[in-house]
C-alpha cells in the first residue's frame, strides 16, 4: 500500500511539471502628461522706509490766515421822483399796403414747389413726386456709377419708410441699363432720401413698403 501511494505522488508531480504555466496578463497602457513646473513666487517688495528717520528738521507749524472784515456797505441813496410830462397823443401809423398779386404768387411759388417733394437728396439731386400709381423719381447726377457718367440710368427700389422719414431695407427691383452699376448707386443714394410715412387715423404708420425710383441724368429725346 505504501508503494502504491508513493507511485501516485510521483505521477502527480510529473503531471504538474509537464503542464505549461499560464501567461501573465498584459500591462495596461501608461499615459504621461507633461506639466510645466510652477512659476516661482515673486519676491516681496522691500519695506518702505520709516517716516521717523533721523536727520530731518521738524515740520513748521501751520499758520491760519483769517480774512479781514469786509468794509461796511454805503447807505443806499434814493433818487427823487421826477415828474415826467404826460405823453403826447400820437396818431396811429398809416396802414401798410398789401403786396401786389404778382409778388404774392412769387412768394408762394417756392412753397408750393417744395410741398409735394417729400424727399431730399444730395446736392444737384432733385426729387419730383408723381401720382400715387407711379413711383417718385429722383435725379441724381453726382451719384453716377463710375464708368457711366454720360449714360442715363433708372433704378426702382423697394424700401420701408421709417418714422424718422428715412428709408430702410431697400432692395433693387429693376435697373436700366442692367450691369452698369446703377442698382448699387441707387442703394447708396437712398440713404439721403426722406419720405413722410403714411398715416392711419391721423398717426404715422411705420413699416409701410413703397417703390422709389431714381433717375440718373436725363433721358435723351
Automatic annotation (TrEMBL):
Domain of life (superkingdom) = Bacteria
Annotated Low complexity bias: 78-91, 99-125
The annotated regions of Pro residues compositional bias extend over 20-50, 67-77
Q: Where is this region: Disordered?
A: 18-149
Q: What is this protein called?
A: Ferric siderophore transport system, periplasmic binding protein TonB
Amino acid at each position: 500500500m505504501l508503494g502504491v501511494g508513493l507511485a501516485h505522488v510521483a505521477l502527480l508531480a510529473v503531471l504538474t511539471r509537464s503542464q505549461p504555466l499560464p501567461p501573465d496578463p498584459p500591462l495596461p497602457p501608461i499615459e504621461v502628461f507633461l506639466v510645466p513646473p510652477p512659476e516661482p513666487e515673486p519676491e516681496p517688495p522691500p519695506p518702505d522706509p520709516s517716516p521717523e528717520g533721523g536727520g530731518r528738521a521738524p515740520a513748521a507749524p501751520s499758520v491760519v490766515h483769517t480774512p479781514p472784515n469786509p468794509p461796511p456797505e454805503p447807505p443806499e441813496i434814493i433818487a427823487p421822483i421826477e415828474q415826467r410830462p404826460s405823453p403826447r397823443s400820437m396818431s396811429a401809423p398809416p396802414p401798410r399796403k398789401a403786396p401786389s398779386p404778382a409778388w404774392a404768387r412769387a412768394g408762394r411759388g417756392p412753397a408750393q414747389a417744395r410741398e409735394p417733394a417729400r424727399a431730399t437728396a444730395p446736392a444737384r439731386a432733385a426729387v419730383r413726386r408723381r401720382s400715387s400709381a407711379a413711383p417718385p423719381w429722383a435725379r441724381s447726377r453726382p451719384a453716377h456709377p463710375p464708368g457711366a457718367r454720360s449714360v442715363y440710368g433708372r433704378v426702382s427700389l423697394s424700401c420701408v419708410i421709417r418714422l424718422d422719414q428715412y428709408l430702410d431695407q431697400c432692395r433693387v427691383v429693376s435697373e436700366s441699363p442692367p450691369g452698369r452699376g446703377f442698382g448699387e448707386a441707387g442703394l447708396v443714394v437712398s440713404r439721403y432720401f426722406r419720405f413722410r410715412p403714411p398715416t392711419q387715423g391721423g398717426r404715422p404708420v411705420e413699416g409701410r413698403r413703397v417703390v422709389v425710383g431714381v433717375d440718373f441724368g436725363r433721358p435723351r429725346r
